[in-house]
């Protein structure tokens, strides 16, 4: 299963806003790792000198991964620029 953040509309988009890298590093990020049967969704915290800390993990069926990722992004106000998807 291929997942794309643009076509599946994962993450919040703010029209007319330009964010620099420093601003994005202070916000939460979402990482989606697509597997064979189930996918793994991680919410990551702000960037520190040790990298991003994990805030929360979710295991989701592949048929529901786009819907769950959209719901999590809306709930935690995660921008589309901070969403990373790892397809196999």
Structure description:
- With 88 residues, the protein is an alpha+beta fold.
- It has a single domain (21-86), classed as Ubiquitin-like (UB roll) (Roll).
- Helices cover 20% and strands 35% of the residues.
- It is built from two helices and four strands, in the order αβββαβ.
- It has helices at residues 21-26, 65-76; strands at 29-33, 38-48, 51-61, 83-86.
- Strands 3-2-1-4 form a four-stranded mixed sheet, with helices on one face.
- The chain is globular, with a radius of gyration of 13 Å.
What keywords describe this structure?
Ubiquitin-like (UB roll), four-stranded mixed beta sheet, 88 residues, alpha+beta
Structure described in brief:
With 88 residues, the protein is an alpha+beta fold. Helices cover 20% and strands 35% of the residues. It is globular and about 35 Å long.
What's the helix and strand layout?
Blueprint: H1 21-26, E1 29-33, E2 38-48, E3 51-61, H2 65-76, E4 83-86
Parallel strand pairs: 1-4
Antiparallel strand pairs: 1-2, 2-3
């Amino acid at each position: 299963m291929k997942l794309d953040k643009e076509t599946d509309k994962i993450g919040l988009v703010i029209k007319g806003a330009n964010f620099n890298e420093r601003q994005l590093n202070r916000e939460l990020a979402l990482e989606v790792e697509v597997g064979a049967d189930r996918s793994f969704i991680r919410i990551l915290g702000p960037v520190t000198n040790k990298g991003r800390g994990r805030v929360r993990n979710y295991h989701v069926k592949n048929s529901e991964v786009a819907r769950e990722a959209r719901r999590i992004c809306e709930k935690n106000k995660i921008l589309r620029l901070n969403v990373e998807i790892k397809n196999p």
